[in-house]
Amino acid sequence: MSIEIRNVNKQFGDFTALDDVSVSVPTGKLTTLLGPSGCGKTTLLRIIAGLEYADSGHILFDDIDVTHVPVQKRHIGFMFQHYALFRHKNIADNVAFGLNLLPKDKRPSKAEIQKRVSELLELVQLPQVANAYPHQLSGGQRQRIALARALAVKPKLLLLDEPFGALDAKVRKELRTWLKNIHHELGITSIMVTHDQEEAHAVSDEIVIMNHGIVEQVGTSEELLTNPASPFVSEFLDV
Ligand SMILES: Nc1ncnc2c1ncn2[C@@H]1O[C@H](COP(=O)(O)OP(=O)(O)OP(=O)(O)O)[C@@H](O)[C@H]1O
């Protein structure tokens, strides 16, 4: 699914969080929003999700205007740093959460849900933990389960907000390679927020550099590093 962000503006009181932001996110790619703290990355991601609404401008999914469509109807998978696993549910029930929430006519049978959970646990390379509880897993394993949960409802768009933010540097590095591989295998259009440049360069097909609510430049890691479009980009990327 392609995503088009057209002339999006967002104010919080007198503060301009997004100033006429336009970005195209190509189908099947992993696009990263990168920029210093407070530049508007999370606000933009939340507007794409439908968790927040723009003051003006449009969001299009596959050329369909979803600007006013609520989050539940956008068919998005979420992997957010602060959207933790449910502590009192076992791993299988955590992964099945979105499926169990579906309206009756769309919900798979119990057996189908069980099968899907097994497939997802295989995909994230944790087939043995179905009956465990979140506290029995490491931080990195929990984030892999969070991705399985996000993928359960077969989303057409995956949104990741600092997905590895709470992990130590070594695990972060392992998981970014893992994420890149899974993304290539599945080819789901994905948008990730990070302030970690190394992470952005390592996993992204495209990077959107933001600063004070505006988009400074969009390009591949190589394009940005070899041809920074503004003094901000060259200073920010240190090139
Ligand atoms: N609900 C809100 N009410 C008031 N101000 C807000 C609100 N949400 C965000 N802001 C402000 O908008 C600006 C952009 O916030 P946003 O979270 O989008 O930045 P960010 O680039 O994701 O930063 P970080 O990397 O620190 O998370 C910040 O200055 C923030 O304080």
TrEMBL record:
Q: Does the keyword Nucleotide-binding apply?
A: yes
Keywords for the protein's UniProt record, in alphabetical order: ATP-binding, Nucleotide-binding, Sulfate transport, Translocase, Transport
Q: Which InterPro entries match?
A: AAA+_ATPase, ABC_SmlMolc_Importer, ABC_transporter-like_ATP-bd, ABC_transporter-like_CS, P-loop_NTPase, Sulph_transpt1
Q: What is this protein called?
A: ABC transporter domain-containing protein
Per the record, the domain of life is Bacteria
Q: Which residues form a coiled coil?
A: none
Where does the record place the ABC transporter domain? 3-237
Q: Does the keyword ATP-binding apply?
A: yes
Origin organism is Psychrobacter aestuarii
From which lineage does this chain's organism come? Bacteria, Pseudomonadati, Pseudomonadota, Gammaproteobacteria, Moraxellales
The record's listing under Pfam families reads:
ABC_tran
The record's section on SUPFAM superfamilies has:
P-loop containing nucleoside triphosphate hydrolases (SSF52540)
